[in-house]
Amino acid sequence: MDLSIVIPAFNEARLIEQTLRSVTTSLAANAESGFSSEVIVVDNNSTDNTAELARQTGARVVFEPINQIGRARNAGAAQASGEWLLFLDADSVLSAGLLADIFRVIDSGKYVGCGSTLRMEGLPWWAHLTLQLWTGTSVLCRWAAGALVVCRRDAFQAVGGFDQELYALDEIRLSKQLKQWGRQRNLQFTILTTHPLETSSRKISLYSSREIASQIFRIFFLPKKTLQDKKRLSVWYDGRR
After folding, report:
1. What is the pLDDT of residue 1?
2. Does residue 118 lie in a domain region?
3. CA–CA dist 113, 81 (Å, integer)
4. Number of domains within the chain
5. Within a domain: residue 232?
6. Treating both helix axes as pointing N-terminal to C-terminal, what angle do 209-221 and 125-141 enclose, rounded to 10 degrees?
7. Which letter, b or e, does each residue of 209-241 get, where b requires 16 or more Cβ atoms within 10 Å of its Cβ?
8. Interatomic CA distance for residues 47 and 65, integer angstroms
9. Shortest CA distance to 216 belongs to which of 133, 92, 114?
10. Is residue 105 part of a domain?
11. Do 3 and 35 contact (CB within 8 A), yes or no?
């Protein structure tokens, strides 16, 4: 069974090699799983050498000129050949244990897809509390964090992939759509908790608590207007790295 790992990347020269090394190491540790795999990095119109670094580590690179996370993920999926798709953020580290858990989900034949809880190091108390609140919500509602989403390719195509009208939190909408698609076929969507995905906490150091609180406030109280306008989503799109 084939797995396509899709990594959207915009100006990720600082972290892309670390992410790709983690993928390579995790795949090697699970070599006896019986899965074949491919790694696709989507260069989302980077102005640094992200694409070159990705090629040097052996990844296949595709180009998406419009800077939007959902569009980049969809562009990678369109080039993928796997029966299963694994979307991984370029500032995250995939562990062998988490990948083994994902393979068990796939092998069981009971799931349409899965997400994972997250681990971030060095968080201040308010950010740690926010992450804990998200973790509880994610597990309870079975909403995947965008840092890691896994699903069947046929289900992904059937629901239309990531919603390109949204510039953030499109992974929540996709989770809802995958759950509905799976429910009709007696398949589940789950959040894995045993091996949380290690992902970067850089937004916490790059943005002040006031900036982050303001972003959350706008999303919560003006969701449609905010999520459909890239200019209102500075924490995702103002280019700080």
Report:
1. 61
2. yes
3. 17
4. 1
5. no
6. 30
7. eeebeebeebbeeeeeebbeeeebbebbbeeee
8. 11
9. 133
10. yes
11. yes
3-state secondary structure of 186: coil
How many residues would you count in the chain?
241
**Amino acid identity, position 236:** W
Residue 65 falls inside a structural domain: yes
Residue-by-residue pLDDT tens, the chain, 241 positions: 699 999 999 999 999 999 999 999 999 999 999 999 999 999 999 999 999 999 999 999 999 999 999 999 999 999 999 999 999 999 999 999 999 999 999 999 999 999 999 999 999 999 999 999 999 999 999 999 999 999 999 999 999 999 999 999 999 999 999 999 999 999 999 999 999 999 999 999 899 989 999 999 999 999 999 999 999 999 999 888 8
What are the structure tokens assigned to 219, written together? 């999303």
The residue segments making up the domain with residue 33 are 2-201
CATH number, position 177:
3.90.550.10
pLDDT of res. 59? 97
**Residue for token digits 């670390």?**
18
Helix 16-29 to helix 96-108 angle (10° resolution) is: 60
Name the nearest CA neighbour of 222 among 212, 211, 233: 233
For Cα atoms 62, 172, 241, give the angle at the middle one, nearest 5 degrees: 50
Q: Which residues neighbour 30 within 8 Å (Cβ) at sequence distance 6 or greater?
A: 96, 99, 100, 103
Q: How many other CB atoms are found less than 10 A from the CB of residue 79?
A: 14
Q: Which two tokens stand for residue 64?
A: 């998406």
